[in-house]
């Protein structure tokens, strides 16, 4: 068979070659495409040693090359230097792979000519694989060919796909069943689910836009495996002429892509890369990229209501079906990159149907569903789906397993969120996880995509991150919105001038923040465009009003075309509302699929008509009007109906609740009023979207009461600890629900961002809970119309007057999320305050500005460039002011101060405009800590060692860059290479002298995994004959030699030597040795100046220990512990290493004196609160300790560990009280209280049960 390699282009051809190499060689390393690779597109190792080098040479037009041998040898001439360098590194074989056509004439043909060249010029065994060599290797690799279908002709691809369907009888049956099934499903998925007004059923292929997707993680850490592949795709999809800024960013990405597989990455790092580059990847682009899905085969894709999850699942399945069915006309409408993606056999079902199948019901049999006796497994459900929709061909679990074993398959499972009952959802998650484990054992290639809204229910079952990787759909970009507008206009056959006008109006409207927010969602964008088409620029502001206007527009169209709709318009609207509530409530309370059978539908409508005193004779007409004209109800399963998209069901349900609520005079008592109904649905996260629509119905006079109820919701005991009630309040504000009433708006804003609300918002947004409760992950910012001016006005005084603390940090963080006009005001006021502040206050104001994200190019640059106070200049580093603000004349002074400050935990970011901060980034000890202890070298060192110029107008910057030059290596692994650390520190110390930063890095180098580096000969800790790294290695070996440590301490004659001894001993001396040397250490520490004690205290209080030994408990005399003052240097340094117990507890009650470092106070707080949790301190005792140590400048970060043996419910009232007193307790306590209260939360009552009990519809 011949293959069209040229269709792949250069990058995919390289990937094809790599795929073949993995079949033929063991231990193949495939290098990313489009990057500098040192002459290697792949390598193979043997016994851990480099053996074979592979290089790929591609030509777009091989038939046009007149002399293939010369083309090859010319290319090799340019590679010889690299090949010799690789030879020196141990390579013994070189293989060149090309798609060029060879000639075979003896001696004179291109094959023999190239072989002679290889023998004469390549310093190792060398071969060339020509096109024919690749052909023969491909012939037997079925799965590789299907991964690159563009190399095959249409008939060849189809023949290949249908091969190997088993024995002759089974083969024909399976082929016919699948062919018929895919044809039926292709017809079903040909149109988008959401049908738009005045638009015929909308073609999926013509209207589909690729909504961006990004990795995220329920545990707030992304696997490097996922991030590697995602960033690889990000780069490969980029433009050739990237901006200068991208050229700065992507060298860091290249280092990241070479990280080890066991690394975890915080989502914030990915967010920063995407923000810096301005690039996004469409979800379809990502999920059709073979490199990504090979490493991430099982994906959970989350997205907000109406964001396009189901449309994406339709598209992914439809693309595969169209290729299998050879629908060339439809395929011509698709991007070439999608058509050439790997071919798989697609099987798509909804997870609510799987839930029914697991319960023994056949969800596709009609209504009521029939019972089935088939296996209650995913495989059983998929086989039954094929059998039913193939027209009845026999197709069972054995057939399904056979297809999975012999063909690549894609299983798409849609809408986990629509499995309303949590027990059912648990069974679904369990079964899908088990099925994946079963299928992958023998599957040729198994891919699984699961879609869901992020869960709004605490403790709801979710797919384990150990097996499934998570993506989330991002907002539609303005560019993508305009692309959709063009497709939408084309689908309507609009004139060019009308289409242009609609695009202009949309652009104009998107300049308003609330409209831009609406346009970030595919379904809402469709509605916006429909309304623009009908009403021009006169659009509603509220989300509910947007749907109101759309539904009105829809019915306006139909009354002109249908007498049924014209004569029964209001009745049809109210029936849709009633049905929506009935079906939504029933899906929750009865654990159903959200569908309704024809018989049940008729009964519900008949009952409704009877209740409304309407004639039942028009029932059939109404059904016709609902199904054929309005089409909000559709039939996807024979004999059943459902709302075409869930947001429409939720909108109609909300309208029903509002429009049917009775009026109750003030002198009477009624049931089911609007306030009653709000209280009933607002508590239930399953009804969150309904609640948003419902609240949007309220009129101006009702808003103040609604605001009171929103505030009361936040105070309910059952809501304590949950982000849900405040997230609902934020959503209602952002939906413009309260925009007609300033009083109501201000009331909700005050509750949303009271002191606890601010602390919780900070912890949720910046502290990790966003990943855990991502359904509430709304931007905490408000606009000028939704309460931002009031929030800023009420809090501005505190922002600039309070001392810097955890509470002020939280306030600054939320201020930084507000809209631009309010930020501009805050920025201006900040500059005014900063000008008149003293140095210590300026340092705090810089911290506030950093968290509030106030720095802006329009700010007065003199505020920073004319600064002369050294501590303030250092604070500008921590604040990461965008442009370099430190004069070159101050560079060395600032660098020295940075290298010798006590707090070395700050990691400096890099950017082209801040060369000193960028150059100093490599000196951060905590960066080295993560690199040496956690194998994060490529992530952290790659982040700062971008390829910049080694020369600078600043001598200080040039010296820092020169010291780091040796670290710019693709095989960077300092965790096993002590020489690398030693060389760096030698250069740093030569340029700047001994510093605290270099001392800490040297102390950490004791953990480098290099057994041959024992520090032999470096027997004296203060000897200048050996590097400090070697002396630390030697000291580590002597951890238990008390005499040696005592001798070294006695030899310490200067303050610097005593500080060094303490740092090394704290990290590497055994606890028994330190206990024996207690008296000597205590007297030594008492002699040290405050700045040295501060540095040592900071080292000791670190929550990321530099060595395992530094966590071992010491045994200091009890008599000393009884009498030691709380500000004793020895106590502050060794506090974390004193065993827990009553004696240590009593230390906390000692009278506070001046001189307590923030680091020690933080450590004391962590210890005390943990003791309280464990029951050793009373509520009164802990609050006394808390008041003593929790003062401005003290920050906590660890989470309280609540032992399983503790009676959690006994602490519930205390946890709730602590949240009410949040201003006076640390972040870790608030976080711990929220976590425990969420753990104890109960499932809310189903709304149907609440409605019945409270007689809403009596």
What is the secondary structure topology, with strand pairs?
Blueprint lengths: L8 H16 L3 E3 L11 E5 L2 E9 L10 H10 L2 H9 L4 E6 L11 H12 L3 E5 L1 H9 L2 H6 L6 H9 L5 H21 L15 H4 L5 E4 L5 E2 H13 L7 H14 L6 E2 L1 H11 L5 H5 L2 H6 L2 E5 L6 H16 L3 H4 L4 H4 L5 E6 H8 L2 E2 L7 E2 L6 H12 L7 H10 L1 E7 L7 H19 L4 E8 L16 E5 L4 H14 L4 H14 L3 H6 L3 H14 L7 H17 L3 H5 L1 H21 L6 E2 H14 L7 H12 L2 E2 L5 E4 L2 H14 L14 H9 L5 H8 L7 H13 L8 H11 L7 H11 L2 H12 L2 H4 L15 H14 L4 H10 L4 H17 L2 H13 L10 H4 L4 H10 L11 H10 L14 H6 L4 H10 L2 H8 L10 H10 L13 H15 L3 H9 L23 H10 L4 H10 L3 H14 L2 H6 L1 H10 L2 H12 L16 H6 L5 H6 L7 H6 L10 H16 L5 H11 ...
Parallel strand pairs: 3-4, 4-5, 9-14, 9-15, 10-13, 13-14
Antiparallel strand pairs: 1-2, 2-3, 6-15, 7-8, 11-12, 16-18, 17-18
**Average pLDDT value?**
85
The percentage of residues in β strands lies in: 5-15%
Spatial shape: globular
What structural class is derived from the secondary structure elements?
alpha/beta
Return the CATH architecture of the domain at 168-211 and 296-474: 3-Layer(aba) Sandwich
Number of DSSP helices? Answer: 65
Major sheet attributes: 6 strands, mixed
In whole angstroms, the N-to-C terminal distance is: 74 Å
List unreliable stretches of 5+ residues.
768-777
> Rounded to an integer, what's the Rg over CA atoms?
34 Å
Number of strands: 18
How are the strands ordered across the major sheet?
Answer: 6-15-9-14-13-10
Q: What is the name of the CATH class of the domain at 168-211 and 296-474?
A: Alpha Beta
**Approximately how much helix is present in the residues?**
40-55%
